[in-house]
Amino acid sequence: MRAYEALAASSIDAWDREADVVVVGLGCAGAAAAIEASEAGARVLVLERASGGGGTSANSGGLIYLGGGTAVQKACDVEDDPEEMFRFLMAACGPGPDEAKIRVFCDRSVELFDWLESHGVPFKRSSYPEPGKEPPTDDCLVFSGGEDGWPYASVAKPAPRAHKPQAPGAAGAFLMQKLLAALGRTDAEVLEDARVDRLVCDAEGRVVGVVAHRVEGEVRVRARGGVILTAGGFISNPEMVARYAPQIARANWRVGTDNDDGGGILMAQAVGADTVRMDAASVTIPLYPPKRICRGVLVNAHGQRFINEDAYAGLIGQRALREQGGRCWHLLDAETYEVNEVDMQAKVVEDSWEDLERALEMPEGSLVATMELYNRHARAGRDPVFHKRESLVTPLDTPPFGALDVTLGGCVYAAFTLGGLRTTPAGEVLRTDGSAIAGLYAAGRTTSGVAADGYASGVSLADGMLFGRLAGASAASHRSAGGGS
Question: What's the whole-model pTM score?
Answer without folding.
Answer: 0.96
